[in-house]
Amino acid sequence: MNSNAIRVTTILTLTLLSGTAMAQSVVRLTPLSPGDSYAEDINDHGEVVGQSIQAGFGMAPVRWDASGTPSNLGMLESSVTGFANAINNNGEIVGYCEDSTGLRKATLWDGRGGMVDIHAEIGSSSSSIPWHINDSGVIVGQANISPGIFPRGFVWDQTNPAAQAGTDTYPGGANYGVNNDGHIVGSGYFFGDPDDAMLAVPDGRGGYDYPLINPLGLNFSQARAINNNGMIVGHSGYNSTTVTWNACIFTGDDRDPVMTLGTLPNLDTSEGLDVNDNGVIVGYSWDGTASGFVPHAWAWVDGTMHDLNELLDDDSEFDVLIRATGVNNNNDIVGYALMDDGRIGAFLIEGFMTNAECPADLTGDGELNFFDVSAFLAAFGEQDPVADFDRNDEWNFFDVSAFLSAFSAGCP
Q: What are 392-402's pLDDT values in tens digits?
């Protein structure tokens, strides 16, 4: 046994159980005014966007800086409410502003205090919604930009502004995600048919190729996000073990096009909403066959779907974490929750499962020391799942032994 293990054994023998705070805390993002708030996306600098109640003005598009301070992004003229959907690593934000008639206008906040009316730029004849923006400023969304009764996917390039239908092969649809290579994912549909997952890849000639990722047959499928490694996530009814649909990875393999991620225990439906370059996927699950059940937010890491509600303690101001909407490359997760006062609140979880390769690092600081031991002792005494190191729903000597072995192994 090495010196680390000897020290841990000594501490475990001599130290009383303590109340040291556990890692992976869930933090509420302060709203502009008391009331509902929603977090939709987070960039690698820790800047979060979404929407929040603004006293006297209704729902306003908001940006939380890396310290968690909120600011109102402002809205287009004649707008009564606004929503921010995505932010890139340059601080550029996309969302929409809505007027009193319900018309939604795609909007860009340039990160320098300016706004661009994307709705007008693309000439949309009805509501337009941008869903994502990559680090080059390429914006994707849905709008009526060509003849027809259905909205279609659009692409808007700020360097050479032009409206392009990313769902060319369908009369209706939406573009939901775009990576830094300009690869677009979304879904398209024919009238009366379920959605088909879609991938559009720049062809080098100003257009797009459309590699097949959708499973053949009438299976509801949507591709919602693509990371910079080309990993595509969303949800599909294909190969689902339930009567609804489940979160999935679209593999691009003709023989096995969908890797189903399943859903949380006792729930039958799940959707994947975002994925980072580490392959961490976030989304939510619910019971599609029963009414009144509150959804649960989750994160999928290395083959396991984790209910984020397991991070909440008894005195948390959160009642249920409803939906995880965004994850950055630091494994920071944002979303929104039902609060114990009945309101909706935006939340942030910093560095989720960053200690996956170093399970004894319970404080998540990349080091193994007394504080990790103290955290283990506190969790062990409370029979917290984080201290159930042998994953058998019991807390005994074998968990202590497993923790000691992990501590002795150190961090890579």
A: 668 888 888 88
